[in-house]
Every structure is written in C-alpha cells, then in structure tokens.
Predict the 3D structure of the following.
Amino acid sequence: MERQQQLTTDFVANRHSLYAFIYGFIRNTHDAEDLFQEVWVRFSNALARGVEIQDQAKWCRGTAHNLILHYWRDRQHDKVVVDQELMQLVETAFTEQDGNQDYWRTRQQALGECIQTLPERSQQMLRLKYEQGMSAQEVAEEITQSAESVWMALSRLRRVLRDCAERKLKFMTGAS
Amino acid sequence: MKTLEQLLAEWEEGTITAEGITELKQLLAQPAARAELVGEWLFYEAVYGTLRSMPAPAKATLKVAQPAAAKASAPARTIRPPVRRRRMLPWLVWHEFRLPLRWALGMGLAVCLAWLGYFGIYLRMPTGQLASVKKEVAIVRGGKTIAAQSGQLLYPRDKINVPSGGSARIQWLNEPTTVELSANASLELRSPLLGKLLALKAGSLKASVAPQPHWRPMTIKTPQARATVVGTRFTMDVTGNTTRMEVMEGAVSVRKNQARSTAEKQAVMVRAGELVLAEPGAGLKWQVLRGYVVREILELPTGSLPLTGSPGKVVLTDRLTNLFSEGRATGLKVSTNHYYEERIRCYIYPPATDNYIFWISSVGRSELWLSTDEDPADKRRIIVKAALPRTGSKVSGNSAWQLSPAAPGKPMTVLRSGGSALKGARIIHGEKSKAVKLIGGKQYYLEINQPFSPSEVEVVWWTRPSQAAGSSGDVLNGSILAPYSQNSGWAFGKPSP
C-alpha cells in the first residue's frame, strides 16, 4: 500500500516531464491532455491490479509511447508521421534527465513566475500559440501582424523567459 | 545545418521536413542536445501550465499598442478574444487530403457536374418517333397513357404497348435505325446515357440497327437475356420464359441475365444465320438458322475477271430458299466498268449417310466447292461447269427458268419458260460430280461461284445412286441448308446444332 502511495506521489511530481514528453510529439494541447489522462488511468489501473512497477517515470513514458504511436497511426494523412528512431532518442533524453527531476521542477517554477511577469500582450501571444495551439501563421492572422514578426516575437520571448528562469535558478540555488 | 533550436521550433510548428528530422536525429546523438530538447519541451509545458492556471483576460478585447506616429491618427487596434474556431465536418474531411488530391477531386467533381448537367438536358430530348402505328398503340409517359399516332416523338423512359393485332415501327432520329414491334409487344425506352437501352418485356421485335459507336451500343434487355448490338438486322422474341433471337445480318453479343457458371456469364457473339435461345436454368442454346441460304453479289475490281480469285466487294445480299437461283437481283445497280460474281456459301446437312452425286446447271461457267467438314478451309472443287457456247441470241434480263421433268432414269435439265427466243441455250444439261460419301446429320460447308448476270440461272441438285432407279434427283432446298457464318465469337466452343 505504501508502495502504491509512493508511486502515485511520484506520478504527480513527475507530471510536468510526462506531459512535456506527450505534448512534444502530439503538439496539440487538447489531445495531449487526453493522452496524459489515459496514461494516468492505465497507471492507476495497473496499481489496482497489483502490477509490479519498478520505475514509475519509465513505465509511464512507455505507456505514453504506445499511445502516441496509436495516435499517429490513426492520423496517417497528417503531414508529420512520428519517426520511431526519433521517439527512441527523445525517450532516452527524458530517461537521462530522470535523475535531475528536482532541477527541472525548480526550473518549471521559475519559468512560471517569469511568465506571470510578462506584459499582457506577450502573454496573449503565448496563450494563442501554446494554449490555443495555433500556428505562427494563425497567430499572425489573429493579431493582424505578419507571420515573420510573430515568429521573431515568439523566439525572443522564449529567450527572455529562458534567461529569466536561469537568473531565478541562480538566485534560488545561491540562496539555498 | 540548422541549430537544434530552429529544428525544434520547426517541429513544434509542424513544418519540419524529412531532412530536418534526419538532422534532428543526428544532433540528438549528443547528450547535450538531448538535455536541451528536454528543456525546450518542458518550456512548452511550463507556458501551458502557467497560462492555464492564470485567469483569462478580463475584457473580451485587448488593446494592442500602436506605433507612436499612428496613435494620433488611427484608433487603437483590437485583438479578438481567442476563440477556438469551429469547423464543420466536411471542411475537416476535405482538408485531410493533400492539395494535389484536392485539386484532382475538385476537377473530377466539376466534370461530373458538367456531365450530369449535359445529360439532364439530353434526357429531355426526343430520341425517336413512331414512323407508323397500326391499331391503338399506347405510350405510357410519366405514369400517363397516351394514344400513339404516326409521327409522334418518343422520349427516354417512354413505354410502348402494342395491342393484339397491332404493330408499331420506331424510327430513331438522325440515323436509319428502326425497330418494328409486333402484336402484344411491350417495349420501354430506357436512359440513353450509355447508348440505346431498350427493355422488351413481352412480344417480339424486328430491328435494323445502323452502325453504333462501340462505346454507346444498342442494348436490348429481356427478362432472360441482354443483347448488345453495334449494327445489324435481327429479330427478338419473348415468349413466356424464353427469349429467342435470330440474326440476319451482322452480329449481336448476347449474355444471360442470371448466369450461374463462369461459362454462362460470358457474352457470346451470334452472327448472321444463327439463332440463340435463352431459357431459365440452362445456358444459351445456339442453333443454325435453317431454311434458307444467303446469296452474295460481289463487285470485282476494275479489270478483274470472274472466278479468278479476285477479292470482290459485296454489293448485295439476298436470301434463297433453295439452290435454284435465277439471275434477277432487285436493287442492284450494275456498273459497266466492273464484272460481278455470284457467291453462295452455306452449310448442308445430308439426311442420311450415303454416296451423293452433285449436279450443277448454269448458263455461264460455274463452280461447286464442298468441304470434308464444316470448315471452309477444307473445301475442294468437285464440279466445274463450262459456259454454254454463245449463239448470238439475246437473252432477256427477265428470263424465267424451270426444271424440266426428266425422263425416267435421266437427269434433270433446265428450260427457259416458253423459251422459243433462247436459241441454243434453251435446254441446259447439268454437270455432275463424282460420288461423294456424306454422313447423315453432319455439317458440311458448300460454296457455289459463278459470274453474275441478270440472265443467269443456276441450279444445284443431287442424286443418290442407292435410291431407286428412275429418280432424277432433288434440288437442294432449305430443309437441309443453312447460311454460312463465322462462329469465332463462341468463347467456350460452338454448341452442336
């Protein structure tokens, strides 16, 4: 029972990493949410059945891997079909970072704080891009600007946020 | 070579190419690049997670900052609130296809619409007219029954019902195709989209079909069979559960409606001089049309003489009920620049196995060919009859001939009726062949050739030495003759007659 509670706690703690893994391949917030929920359902069912899970993060990524493959198989007409070799490399990348979960959690927290300090217009642009799932072209149409300027603005925002997060991380680690 | 950041941005945007994916995989072979990828993807998650937890903008519209110069003159631009676009299912399905496919589908759709539009107009145009009607022929059009009259136009989907004792002749517009309906016939003119489609429900019809385009033939459906015609003369009769088709000229492709085996499903070609029967529970039954032979008049090329093997052009065909042929040929326009040849090709069915002696009688030279079987390739010449010597007497084109009653034990001769004007050629003795053994009921190919002239006569008869002495022979008549036809259309072998 304690083991189950520990695994559930780990799942919640690592949810950012798992969602990032899923979203990276799906690139659609709504579908990524659905797949994330499905992984959780399968994970909790496995726990209820008493399935022995050694590595929670790896198990969940493996399940997500299969669901992502099904997702793309059902959408064969889409322009990008996921590459198995690429998936393997990304999975390796996330596995390598499993030991740095504390760092990434802190970074996510710092990023969140940085986003909240952004001007409203920048937040709006990020919202359209990453929450509404629009392409740069669609964002440009929405705010009546050129696609190039939107592309540049998003690139600049990413850089600003990354620098902001790094500064905060240095401050946090320095403070601790 | 693009940077990892550029490639990941393209990946996120969905614009990455196959080459880009290859480059990405090469970069991800390095641990530092893999760590950067995790950081980038977690960045998306952070943005999404943070924005989702933040309250949405309070106002429905957001003011967007304007350049300082424009601020004074233009009102502030507004951004519409981010609303997820609702797209209808057809739009979504349509955009599932790639652009070239969308173009192709669009073009195909446009062509189909144009085609349907054209035939929408075409279906409202008359296809033929009633050239003649006898008794109260009725036309059923759009559920209403109209009394038919001569000259009345016919439209697609019209149904023509002929009463007992009546008849009707349909003439197609702009072509010499005609269909004659007999008493009690019921015929429907179906959609002409892919050619003339007629449905004969009952009764019989006689058709003379002008050459049709191969992609739009005339098709006649009956409850038992379907006949496809590209230009010919034939009769078709539906009686009870049987459809009977006789072809006089050209060829008709016939197929069974409810075929059970592969052999039955195949279309068969019924040629001139053949008939076919379609009945439920059986394959198509083929028979040779007995009772007549076809005489062909061939026009030879300028300078070619008859009976020299020159290929001629058939300029007239008619039927003979026996092999007593007088020269008259109605409708033939004779040119003085050409010689003409008369040819009769037929099958003969001996009534019994016996030795037969063939006789031929004619004014001019004539030849009789007989095959050892039904194949013309095996024919051999069994009689050459020399021309009668010229006497200088003029023979009228309207001469009439008759067989003379032979004296007991003497062969027949041919006389010109009342023929005092025909000096030297009044009595024509026949030329005979050697005795030929023929098997009763077997089919043999027979051919007669002679120069054609309006004053010509030609008679073929046979004698059987085994018969009682005193018999002068029998003229070959329709009961043992059938017209020749080329039966290459029978894909699964020609059935026995």
Residues 59-84, 392-398, 419-425, 487-497 of chain B have pLDDT under 50 and may be disordered.
